[in-house]
Design brief:
about 350 residues, alpha+beta, 3 domains, 4-stranded antiparallel β-sheet, 8 helices, globular
């Protein structure tokens, strides 16, 4: 109370002083204000401006204040069911956003999260096949030491290795690079390790090695010979083909073009019939965030918060771009953080 009385007296005295004497009292007033409020007299608490990528018709994705989230600690992915999956790295909790509804917080092993297809980077171990099992639940299934691809009531496989896999947004198309047989599976390798560790002499180790070699040769012949050891292209799309000569090294991409799968090489994009549909300006082979227009004459790629288009235009300050459909038209969407709303917003570009 004494502080407020003191401040009132100072203000009255301040008004009666000549101009040259008021500078000293300005300093005193700021010190008193800081002591009373905890803020300096110059603290305007300004809100940062909206990023340059913001748009007038932005859609609210999630109100961060409501869920007490810090956008700098969030990791966002798109589930195979079209939902947006948000991981809070501070709490290790997840949120699912779908059809305007937010579900969460959820634990990592929550069935709802698993059904959405949790493709967070925490699930990407050295074993790519196990990553695919988690990312495409019910579609890629482990069967013993091998893997099955189950799609639209049909089963493909078993395969010893799934080295690449892509699924269209509607989930009606898939493509994969697979290998039917490996000379030594995981269980065989463990048995060999155990036998070698228990061997007492060099002769015994040699006999174990020869026995395993014979088993591997028999397994190769039973599985269809040397061809079963080679990678092959598998898809449910009719009249599809993969030409090693012009498409190597090719990567499958089910997110670059809306509801379609393409093959991405160093400088070209091919459809699954083997037709080149787009030439890239530069090497974008390792870029997972490449987007192609429905007319095949435009593309964009995302890197470090910037979306760059092949007409040299750029949008910065954004994250999580992906292809979707708005009113039946393929569109490229992206998200950004709105400081004013403290929310994640989404913009859409017909593409």
């Amino acid at each position: 109370m004494k502080k407020f009385i003191f401040l009132s007296v100072l203000i009255s005295f301040y008004l009666s002083l000549p101009l040259h004497s008021q500078s000293l009292l300005n300093k005193i007033k700021k010190d008193v204000t800081k002591e009373i409020t905890g803020k300096s007299g110059n603290d305007d608490s300004k809100v940062a401006p909206e990023p340059s990528c913001s748009c007038d018709n932005a859609k609210l994705i999630i109100d961060l204040k409501k869920y007490n989230l810090d956008y700098r600690e969030l990791y966002l992915t798109i589930g195979i069911d079209g939902s947006i999956v948000i991981k809070d790295r501070q709490t290790q909790k997840f949120y699912i956003l779908k059809n305007g509804q937010t579900t969460g917080p959820l634990n990592e092993n929550d069935p709802r999260l698993i059904a959405a297809g949790n493709t967070s980077n925490s699930n990407y171990n050295d074993d790519k096949e196990d990553y695919y099992v988690k990312a495409y639940p019910g579609i890629i299934v482990k069967s013993g030491d091998k893997y099955l691809i189950k799609h639209n009531g049909k089963s493909y496989g078993p395969y010893a290795i799934i080295s690449d896999f892509a699924l269209s947004r509607s989930k009606n198309k898939f493509a994969a690079f697979v290998t039917e047989t490996v000379l030594m599976g995981e269980s065989d390798f463990k048995k060999l390790e155990e036998a070698m560790a228990n061997a007492k002499t060099d002769q015994e180790m040699m006999e174990i090695g020869m026995k395993m070699g014979m088993q591997m040769q028999n397994q190769m012949m039973q599985s269809g010979g040397p061809e079963s050891l080679q990678s092959k292209f598998v898809t449910n799309i009719p009249v599809s083909s993969y030409d090693d000569k012009k498409m190597v090294p090719g990567r499958l991409n089910g997110t670059a073009k809306y509801d379609d799968i393409v093959i991405q090489t160093f400088d070209k994009i091919f459809d699954l019939k083997g037709n080149p549909i787009l030439t890239l300006n530069g090497d974008h082979y390792d870029n997972d965030d490449l987007f192609i227009s429905s007319t095949n004459n435009k593309y964009a790629y995302y890197s470090s918060g910037t979306l760059s288009f092949n007409d040299n235009t750029k949008l910065s300050g954004l994250f999580n771009p992906y292809m979707t459909s708005i009113d039946g038209k393929p569109s490229l969407t992206y998200m950004y953080h709105s400081p004013g709303k403290d929310a994640i917003m989404q913009c859409t570009i017909p593409f």
